[in-house]
Amino acid sequence: QVQLVESGGGLVQAGGSLRLSCAASGRTFSRYTTGWFRQAPGKEREFVGAISSTSGRTNYADSVKGRFTISRDNANNMVYLQMNRLKPEDTAIYYCAAGQSVAEVPGEYDYWGQGTQVTVSS
Asked: What is the pLDDT of residues 1-27, one digit of tens each?
């Protein structure tokens, strides 16, 4: 069993930066891929990026590539999403999730956090 808690969301101006954190509980967390997803009002949940469990291989959505970076600290059961050059269209609730592969589909992830709100003003 893995429990995930996101933090670090907030209000930022366009062009600014935020770093989201995902704190995990459970001794097996390091075995899981961790993905970040986001959901804006009235829209479906969409893939942002993911990082594999041990190799650190990452995959990003085209919309965030070059602006967002995912990293993980397995020793402390933490995963981070560094978001730079934020745009108003990045406004959404951001979720971290744990799964078995670096997948872009929400259904491939087994555990989810409660989400943290990110609002980017223009």
From this structure: 899 999 999 999 999 999 999 999 987
